[in-house]
Amino acid sequence: MNPLSKLNNQKLLEDFSLVVLKEREAISEVISYLSHIWAVKLYAEAGYSSLFNFLVEKYHYSEGAAYRRIQAAKVYQRFPEVLAFLKDGSLNLMTLSLIEPHLNQDNGKDLIAKVLGKSKREVEEVLSELSLKKEKVQDVIRRLPVKNSAQNFTFTGESDLNKKDAALGVSQKEEKTSLEMSFSPSGTVINPVQETRKVKIEFVADEKVAKLIQRAKEVLRHKYPHGKLEDLVREAFELLLEKKDPQRKIQKRQFIKKEISQKEPGASLEMPMALSDRNIRTRYIPERIKQAVHKRDEGQCSYVSSDGKPCGERNFLEFDHIHPWSLGGDSTSENLRLLCRTHNQYRNQTLRV
After folding, report:
1. Dist CA 342 CA 348 (whole Å)
2. What are the pLDDT digits (tens) for 122-179?
3. Which fold has domain 275-352?
4. Gap between the Cα atoms of 177 and 195, Å rounded
5. Positive or negative CA dihedral for 162, 163, 166, 169?
6. 68-77, 142-151, 187-196, 232-241 — which is least confidently predicted?
7. 213 CB burial (10 A radius; 0-12, 13-18, 19+)
8. Which pLDDT belongs to residue 204?
9. CA-CA distance, 25 to 87, in Å (whole number)?
């Protein structure tokens, strides 16, 4: 039995009011702590690439809850008086997260005063009246449910492709076109994989992007006569990653070495040295060294906290000199490592102290 059921209604409401007050005080204290943790980047020392990841991964906040608390901490840093409003309930985390992008030193105090005690909808109306509310733009990638299970076929030639057509039926042949298949020079399927799960992608772009898409449709009309965005996006990102993705460059280098070793046994597999490689001290990092470091660190931030927490961030990666360049460190694979931008900046700060 719930022990609260023994309380009379008046006592229950009185106690609940005290609990709510304690909750508000606790939230205010959390925001105060977060503000300081963010200011001195303690999350970086703990092995996290951002305060957001720190809250979600270490303390298991939901993404929405983490975001609202971070936004509130940002407001508190600039306007400390909001902590008192959080405690008395005239402001809440949702309100602070809504107004944070629009606050500055000129309008801050007035805007905070205008949203005191207001609901989310009322706050949005205030922002709209002040011409501050920005268009909400949210990029979405949502995986769609698999519609059927007729996708685990194993086939090796044209006759089997015809059998698969019959199995799918005329109305489902378009779905079959989304199969990813690798072909040998003779046209035989050598690496069939099951149908790729469909995803729905949404984003808002400006007119310039629309014109680029239209031009891409015109240029690639011979290859993609239907002009499907899926085909154009795949083509564009394949070309982009072919030029920019370190992992693809490593794979390409390994493939070239393998081809050379097969065709010319005993041939040197070392790439010619650039001028920057020849005993000339320079900040420039040769491509072969970048690839070696990227491969060794597995394409992720190599920072590990004092208690053994690896960062593992794969975005905003930078090459860091373990022995600083300014102190004589060289651009060798042994002296380089991958760090995310947060941990690279954090390390630079600690070196200055």
Report:
1. 10
2. 999 999 887 655 555 567 667 777 665 444 433 334 444 344 444 434 344 333 333 3
3. DNA Binding (I), subunit A (1.10.30)
4. 9
5. negative
6. 187-196
7. middle
8. 84
9. 5
Residue spans of alpha helices (H) in the chain:
9-39, 42-45, 51-53, 63-78, 82-88, 93-99, 108-115, 120-129, 158-168, 173-176, 207-219, 229-244, 246-263, 287-296, 341-352
Structural tokens at position 87:
């405690």
Please, what is the average pLDDT of the chain?
A: 79
Residue-by-residue DSSP string for 266-294: T---PPPPPGGGSS---S---HHHHHHHH
Confidence (pTM): 0.60
The Cα 30–Cα 24 span in angstroms is 10
Q: State whether residue 315 is helix, strand or coil.
A: coil
Give me the residues paired with residue 318 across strands.
Answer: 339
d(CA 130, CA 237) in angstroms, rounded, equals: 40
Copy the structure tokens of residue 296.
């060794």
Question: So where are the chain's domains?
Answer: 3-129, 140-203, 275-352
Mean pLDDT confidence for 208-233:
84
Distance CA 134, CA 29 (A): 30
Tokens matching residue 312: 């593992």
350: CB partners within 8 A, 6+ apart: none
Residue 159 tokens read as: 């006759």
Residue type at position 286: P
% residues pLDDT > 90 (the chain)? 41
Q: How far is CA 50 from CA 37, 69, 165, 277, 343, in A?
A: 11, 14, 49, 35, 9
